[in-house]
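Re: the 87-residue chain
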Amino acid sequence: MSETVRCWLVERDYYDEDLVTLVYATPDGSRHLTQQLSTALLSKKPPTAAKDVEPDRLEPVADEETRTRYATEAERMADRHDPDDRV
């Protein structure tokens, strides 16, 4: 089994009525995974507060302001939710 990194949901954006963008980030905000999913899929399988992601799927966060925002939101989510909580 490969090693994974716990990432927390830090951003949700509704692109249109049929597509949602979810961003999961590492606790320090330095890396993230962006997923675009249909609202139909999300209604069947809602997003969770956190997910374990393979390191090679994570992208670096380009700017310091976004890293700080992601780290703050990841900490808030970790304080308020269990990883498997649907959010």
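The first helix runs from residue 39 to 44.
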